[in-house]
Write a structure and sequence with these properties.
mainly alpha; about 50% helix
Length: about 160
């Protein structure tokens, strides 16, 4: 007799949990990719390819929304990460000077996020790729230790004022 009551209670709890899980699937989640407004002028195709591989899902308007981004409550976390990533630095709405901290974040291991790498092992950079990527980000966006003229940038400006006193 007691076991029948216990089974009914457990069945009721499971049923309510299942109904709750189904109900939260209907909570709207913003998974849009707004239009691309402006993109960085990459120093090389390799830097751009590494950025697309390791950064674009959260830091561009070209997010690839994986299957789990459609299942609540995980979908809420994914959408929040993308929204915050785009707000801090968006390579699809890039304005000159926006990326000066990008190389530093990668160099210090702050990006890509460990949580992202668990679900996207293809975004993990080898040590050599990381070095190349950091150098490419420094040339593309500037940053500490880059004068901007290392790649002949002063001659590309065409203003001729670089040597004038």
């Amino acid at each position: 007799m007691k076991s029948n009551v216990l089974v009914k209670i457990i069945g009721g709890i499971i049923g309510l949990g299942l109904l709750g899980f189904i109900a939260i699937q209907f909570v709207p989640v913003n998974r849009t990719n707004p239009p691309i407004v402006s993109e960085p002028k990459w120093d090389s195709p390799q830097t751009e390819a590494l950025a697309r591989r390791a950064c674009y899902d959260c830091h561009s308007n070209e997010t690839k929304w994986p299957w789990y981004s459609y299942i609540a409550p995980i979908s809420w976390n994914v959408a929040d990460h993308v929204t915050e990533g785009r707000k801090k630095f968006n390579m699809s709405e890039w304005e000159q000077g926006d990326g000066d901290e990008a190389a530093e974040e990668v160099e210090e291991g702050g990006m890509p996020l460990g949580q992202y790498l668990l679900a996207h092992p293809e975004a993990r950079l080898t040590d050599e790729e990381k070095k190349q990527f950091i150098a490419g980000l420094q040339v593309t966006f500037g940053g500490e230790g880059t004068a901007g003229s290392e790649e002949g940038e002063s001659s590309e400006k065409g203003d001729g004022d670089a040597d004038k006193d």
